[in-house]
Amino acid sequence: MPFATLKKNAKWEIADAKANKDGLRHTVYQVNGDQYRGEWKNNKRHGRGTYKWNRSGVLYEGDWEDGKRSGYGVLSVLNSAGKQVKVYCGEWKHDKRQILRFTKANGVRTNGGGGDACCTLMGVFTRASGWTTFEMVMECCAYVSCSDQIIGIAANQNRFEGKWVNDKKNGRGKYFFLGTGQLMEGIWVDDVPKCCQMADLGRELAPQRTQFEIPEIKLEDPNAVLRETQEKLLEQLSK
User: Where found, per UniProt (predicted)?
Assistant: First the structure.
């Protein structure tokens, strides 16, 4: 009596492979109608993506880590006219907003934001380049990643978070184009972005959004190319 053999690439194998989500996926719908479009890792939302809550109409577009909102993201809600309105743009950690709330205490401004953040603002400066910057000294801050982190706000409200040397952007940083809904992240040398990657972030809700989305990079391993070049630039800056 011959043994029964399974066909190669049987339907159950194809369905099982589709259920194991990794990499970039088109819109995935939840049972309750919620939807997510973006990157996955080990069946969890990881990377960049957009999540929409079906019942409330709340929209989040930004970074994800291990299934939770972590990194930079934009949160929007529906107003009475049925339009999406931004209510928060900034950092997230473990699904919680890292909000900066500044209060004056003995002449020094301190951060009373969410999470376990506790930064001290040593001063607010208007630089020759026209940027207004907030210089921080980190104690146990969840909002910034290094002790010499500086947040800069341009006259057009664009924002740069990173290192400044000699009144110029130098080193690793993030530049947020609020008008077009885009993020540039990488290495700056004397105010020039030398090795950066550009991504849409909140583009659909931006007041001056670009006509087309930024296309996907087709290199075999773009992260490796980017990492190698950035490491060389950081080594030069440290000399």
Answer: Cytoplasmic vesicle, Secretory vesicle, Acrosome
Sign of CA dihedral 92, 96, 102, 108: negative
Q: pLDDT, tens digit, for every residue of 43-96?
A: 899 999 999 988 878 889 989 999 999 988 888 877 667 777 776 777 788 887
Measured CA to CA, the distance from residue 105 to residue 12 in angstroms comes to 64
Give the model confidence (pLDDT) of 197-235 as tens digits: 888 877 777 788 888 888 877 777 777 878 888 888 888
Q: Are strands 168-177 and 59-65 parallel, antiparallel or unpaired?
A: unpaired
Q: How far apart are CA 62 and CA 37, in angstroms?
A: 11
Number of other CB atoms surrounding residue 190 within 10 Å:
11
pTM of the model: 0.48
> What would the two tokens of residue 233 be?
């630039």
Which architecture, in CATH terms, is 1-96? Single Sheet (2.20)
Question: Quick one: DSSP state of residue 202?
Answer: S
Report yes or no: 50 and 205 within 8 Å, Cβ to Cβ.
Answer: no
